[in-house]
Write a structure and sequence with these properties.
The structure holds two protein chains of two kinds.
Chain A lengths: L7 E12 L2 E13 L4 E5 L6 H8 L8 E10 L2 E2 L5 H7 L4 E4 L13 H13 L3 H14 L16 H13 L5 E5 L7 H17 L3 E6 L2 H7 L2 E6 L2 E7 H6 L4 H8 L48 E3 L5 E3 L13
Parallel strand pairs in A: 3-8, 3-9, 6-7, 7-8
Antiparallel strand pairs in A: 1-2, 1-4, 4-5, 9-10, 10-12, 11-12
Helix pairs in contact in A: 3-4, 3-5, 4-5, 5-6
Chain B lengths: L9 H9 L6 H11 L1 H18 L1 H4 L2 H5 L26 H37 L1 H16 L2 H12 L3 H28 L2 H8 L4 H9 L4 H24 L11 H8 L8 H28 L6
Helix pairs in contact in B: 2-14, 3-6, 3-14, 6-7, 6-9, 6-12, 6-14, 7-9, 8-9, 9-12, 10-11, 12-13, 12-14, 13-14
Classes of the chains: A alpha/beta, B mainly alpha.
Chain lengths: 330, 303
Amino acid sequence: MDARPNTLEIKDLTVEYVVEDEVVHAVTGVNITIPAGKTFGLVGETGAGKTTTALSILNLVPSPAGRIVSGEILVEGQDVFRMSPRQLRAMRGDQVAMVFQDPMTSLNPVKTVGEQIAEGMKIHRRLSHKEALRQAMNMLEMVGIPGGRMSEYPHQFSGGMKQRVVIAIALACDPDLLIADEPTTALDVTIQAQVLKLIRGLKENSRMAMLMITHDLGIVAEVCDSVAIMYAGRIVECGTLADIFDDLRHPYTKGLFDSLPDIEHRRTELKPIPGLIPDPVDLPRGCAFHPRCSYAKPECSRDLPETRWLSDTHQVSCHLYDETLENKLS
Amino acid sequence: MQVTSTARPFATKKEFYAQFRKKSIAQELWLRFLKNKTAVMGLVIFCVIVAVAITAPWIADYDTVVIKIHIVDRLQPPSMKHWFGTDELGRDILARIVHGAQVSLLIGISAIFVSLLVGLVLGGAAGYYGGKTDSVIMRAMDVFLCLPDVLLALAIVAAFGNTKLNLIIAIGLAFSPKFSRVVRAAVMSVRDNEYIEAARSIGARDNRIIYRHVLPNCIGPIIVQVTLYVANAILTIAALSFIGLGIQPPTPEWGNMLASGRTFMRDFPHIVAAPGLAIFFTILALNLLGDGLRDTLDPRLKH
């Protein structure tokens, strides 16, 4: 249809944090491609490297501790690691916008919500203060908050409304890519539903691509087109929604699904994945998941599994698929 | 749910929502401040002093009363005609105190304004960027911090002459290292907040982040320091004038009134009591106010 480059291409991204002579392997060899208008879910436990991946896209990995070791991130075909500070500022907020995890702390307590929504438009669209505020009011109404409340301060809003404000700030400049870093984690369930509905509505009404970071597979099922499962800084399985939900291959993915409650069989016990996520300073040799994996074979603790393509869309990194591509989990 | 329509004019809409509005931050803080009786007293005393300083020209004429010598009326004790008595040259002490307030407050507040500007720029940059910038700026400030502020101000005044402007700059510079420290500490406590990262993520440049996002959040500790240091600055002017390097007679200033009155102190104590009390009450008021503001703005007391 159109020859536009993919909105986001992350190629072989590796990020480390150096903390007091210890090297934390936050993200290792991650590849993600998001075409325009698609929503991509990045799923993993706390500390799997999801947020670091997101911050890398804006080139906001905290330095000097954080270090981009290798890889490139193309936003609309342009490498963010080669941008000048001026180009970076022009990209942030305008092409790529981010919704932070906790709306309680991601709004400035001493500025009115209207001013905060207007700020991005003043920076990127060079609008006058008045005009920016007028558009901020429209943005506020778009996310379902009465425009008259734009002269109020964040502490006068409830949690769900604050997250709507954060979303309005992110959408103010009509970005090509929206990064949502666990946008519902800090909210309670009913508010989660409202925010998800809002995000789904946005998705239907725009050509914006979205990177949805979450640890909640339910959210993925609701809003995402494709999914990547991340474990200890690596993507272990990646595919379309159908690939992952109907034909999951990696033992870790299976573990994630098994630890979800099943609404039809309420009496069955949940099966949590045994053990804890490994210390990213001292990752196990071979496949990082092998100490917790019930399918582990001797080679799992020796060699890193290769990434294998099961179909055009579905890839997995696991020694179970060294010889055959048949599903070994069922 | 509330009804919204974009056709509605903004002003009435605002009125419409005003009824749902909770108390603003400022209102809440003001109410909390009012509960602190000593702080309110400080504020009242300070306001009275400021009001007196502003209305000084109407209370007593400068040329005919404040600096004109009436040698026949010299060294009179307090009376109905001269509430605080007269000094060794027969001038009404009350009139001189009132005009002295103008000088002290003007120089004190302007000097702190100068040091606040320097502190915001240097402390803001040091706190926000950290690392080498921080080390260079703060080590330079430490060097100045080693000198007592009166000594530093004295050196500047001695070198450049004691005009009012020079005094303001001298005292302002003498207090800047302290402000830089305060601002730096406040900035460092704010800069790692998620909303600062959020500001960066929408493409704001560093200057914008420091002055629009970080510093407005540091206003609490800075206001407290301003009130406390205005008191200090007034004391410093008085000290400089007392040793003859500040405001020169016949211009009335509390410090030089003390200095010229000290020869007559044994027989006519009212001469030094009046400027002494003026200094005392101003400093007391500002300290009470500063402490009260500190209690009011302390984040730990917020619910």
